[in-house]
Design goal:
By secondary structure, the chain is an alpha+beta fold. The protein contains ten helices and nine strands. The protein is 42% helix and 11% strand. The termini are far apart.
Length: 347
Amino acid sequence: MVHGVSPLVYQLPNAAAIARLIGTGRVRPNDTVVNSATQLIDTLASLSALTELSQADKETVSNVICREMTKGEQDNNGMTFTLKYYSSLQSAELAKSGKNQSLAAVKGYTPTLTDPNKKVIVASIKDEPSLSRRGYVRGAQFARDPNDLNKEPMYYYHSNNGGEPRWIAGVMSTLQTTVGGVNPISGRSVNGSMTPGVWNSKEKTTLATLKRSQIDELFDANKPMPSGFSNYMQPTLNRAGSIMGYSYQIPRANKEAHLDVDTDFTKVIGAWEGRIAEEIQAEKYNEMLLQRLHEMYVKDARQGNAYQYITINKNSTDAQLKEIYELMPIEMKEAAKKIWPNGFLIE
């Protein structure tokens, strides 16, 4: 939550997931225990995060609280207004999952503003030719999880043009839907950075097996709690709590340095509310676009012009068409499959 990476070999993203013991091999407690434990774990995580603040930051926060709480009514001042506003945005964020919580959301998530032209990813050396063509430049090496079966060297790759080809333009919205910074369907982070991971069933099972003994040690009170920061692949969950895969995390300090992060609270809070509204509208807009494209295809097909259309899907051999498909939000891909099971058609 604070540093973006964890010293633990297995780190679940939030208190609700931890209380359910997801992926640990332990029996899930009953709902009463889960609900009680969730509140305790969440509070403990918040208190632990506060200990990571610098002394200067602690003094600043303390001074602001003291100043505001002595002005006017204790429940009606700048501090209480800010906290209530922040809480309302948290609720609106989680409401996007269709529930009052998402087991995929990262504890303490608050969006940050970054330079939209900058991206940082972690990738295998074998992907370098493709990344170079898209404007990425290799940076420092990135250590692998000791349990990772893939031993190919990995590196940071940076781009100052968004990592996307400049010919990309059109009417489709490429905005990814997120809940707590994570796509609720895939469980993958959407935050201006990207890391590799393990996603297919066989690899997930193998990695989970390799991690199991180390997970067991986390429950052993006689074992010391790990410290420091390591590049462990961590579980990624969907909103229902299913493990979709395991992915690497980029340390927050590295991410902020490469993406020119702006953490001004007044800017962030406004951008967050705008993002919530924009995501909702973007999904509706893309659904309308797909319906309109289908109507155009049906009309042209009746007139014998179906040959003028080409298929776009993950297997497209044309590099530009394949990249367009990769840029499509997951929700749009799912909606397109209902209309065109074998890939959607454009003229």
